[in-house]
Design a protein that fits this description.
Blueprint (H helix, E strand, L loop, with lengths): L6 H4 L1 E7 L2 E6 L3 E6 L6 E7 L5 E6 L7 E6 L4 E5 L6 E6 L11 E6 L2 E6 L1
Antiparallel strand pairs: 1-2, 2-3, 3-4, 5-6, 6-7, 7-8, 9-10
């Protein structure tokens, strides 16, 4: 054993599950994505997403594109494209003056196109 890191620094803070992927947010601001499709659970992505603990993760459900949103104690929300294992960052929302404690996707019809909205 090389060393021990405190669970306060690396502990799991939140998680969400969708389409065979489990996203896990930790106290250090990182997001780990695991594939549950195989016989073994394997990590498919590690994202250094935030400067503070990840307080909420939420996958969009049932609509395309498939998205993952993360909220953090750094008062930022990141939205990732979850269609593939790369989880490309597609939007950052940083206009929050107070702490974020949760987030949800809302399905909104705008004209004839379907849109996702983070609330």
């Amino acid at each position: 054993m090389v060393g021990r890191v405190s669970s306060e620094e690396t502990g799991v803070k939140c998680m969400d599950l969708s389409r065979g992927h489990l996203a896990v947010g930790d106290m250090a601001g990182n997001i780990r994505v695991y594939s549950l499709d195989d016989v073994e659970i394997r990590q498919v992505n590690f994202i250094e997403a935030h400067e503070a603990k990840v307080v909420a993760l939420k996958y969009s459900q049932g609509h395309s594109p498939h998205l993952l949103a993360s909220a953090s104690a750094d008062r930022m929300i990141h939205v990732f494209n979850a269609e593939a294992d790369e989880y490309e960052l597609i939007q950052t929302i940083d206009a929050h003056g107070t702490s974020i404690v949760d987030l949800q996707f809302a399905f909104v019809v705008v004209g004839v196109q379907n849109k996702h909205k983070v609330t």
